[in-house]
Amino acid sequence: MLSKKVVTISGGSGGFTLLRGLVEYPIDIISIATVFDSGGSTGVLRDAYGALPQGDIRRCLLALIPNSSQWRGMFMHRFSRDGFLENHALGNLMLLAAEERYGRADAVKVLGEMLGARGQVMPVSVDDAHLVALLDDGSEIFTESAIDTRNILTDERKIVSVRLTKPATACRSVLEAIKSADYIIIGPGDLYTSLIPNLLVYRVSEAIVQSSAKLIYVSNLMTKGAETRGYSVCDFLKALRLYGIDRKIDVVVVSLDDIPSNLIDIYRNTEHAEPAMQIDYAVAMQYGIRYQIASLFSENAANEGIIRHSAHKLGRIIMSIMEGRNDLCHLIVDLDDTLAQTTVTMRGDQNRLEYLTLVDGALKFLLTFPGKRILLTCGEHNLQSRKLEHLGIKDLFEEIYIVPKKGDKETIIANYLKRNGIKNPRNVIVVGDRVDAEILYGRSLGCKTIRVQLHGGKYVGFDHNNQSDLTITSFSELQMKDIL
User: Fold this and answer.
1) What is the average per-residue pLDDT within 370-394?
2) Cα separation of 409 and 445, whole Å?
3) CA 385 to CA 363: how far, in whole Å?
4) Domain hosting residue 124, numbered range
5) Nearest Cα to 64, choosing from 33, 105, 90, 98?
6) pTM summary value
7) What share of the chain is helix, strand, coil (3-state, %, to 5)?
8) Do 241 and 347 fall within a single domain?
9) For residue 381, is pLDDT > 50?
């Protein structure tokens, strides 16, 4: 079996963590790194030699090297003696030497091969440009280092947009990698200084949108005072959309761990940073098809006073997505008086369709369900289709069945199990309001069943002694871990 081709676009410690989590798996990794950083050792070498900025390249390359822990000390070693070498990282000097010997286009590839990297690191461009941020007072900050290091305790201006000082064109190898990828992973990383700079390069966003690859976004754990103060997960996604990622993201990976409050206080007081975990699911539906909620927080990093993803946990959840483990669970859900309170809202009048909304918690349930989602509803085809269009949830389902009478539901469920070769019916969750239809049929086939009894629903209290596995009056009551 051919290994999956995975392209990552991340940065900083987040990019290092992601690659360390993926490198142990049998996949082909290409890491695309920004080349517009300008601070520290990178900035000095860039000014003195016109060198390709090495910061993110160095971190990504290090992450792909076996026995990275042994190499890390050497690669990250900074000379302390006075003189030209003061504060230069050895890894930066190695990249500079490779660039002078093999040229900008091939330097990183050759050095990676020499070090036995399990994958490739590609600079997004070999063109020389600097990053510029437009702030909400109309002023601009020039260079990545100035954006990243401004005094956030006294400077509360927010970034409105970023640009490059001059056009930069993507390396051909980068565009080819994106085109041939099976999966493209964006994040984690600083939004305006690590992620979006890649999208400012000519043709990169376009290539991602046109690619047939599945697109995954890994949300940051924390905001950054100098860049994303006050941002929610949806704000990060909105920013990606503004810079050309105008396709829906297949899976948005979000950590909802309880970060120790003492660590949050430290980050809040020193960096004006907050957890980036809030999700408005009504807004989120515009940007992502599925939201994978997982425990991704690193306890080891926390013991050192740092808030970071766990490389092991992050790698495991990404691989579960790519290996289709989530496809082992299936949701078959009804529409009327289940996802939307049709009886109460429409009262049998088709002209009241404009008042129809999803019930509380239903959208979050659909967006965060980790497996395949199938809608099975009974009614007049045109009306049911109009309801789905009005609610905006049509794209959330892999399959949609609209049947004229309730008895057809049994045939649909039975055929679905047979067609998909489902050996364990308990991997199928049937959700609806009618005990004499989907609940009855689901139980008879051995599926898990969840009965929804919305206040004022047509079939509330209607019972044929066919007990479901679970009865709820609101989707907000559901905990995914309790039903899977």
Assistant:
1) 94
2) 12
3) 18
4) 5-323
5) 33
6) 0.89
7) 40, 20, 40
8) no
9) yes
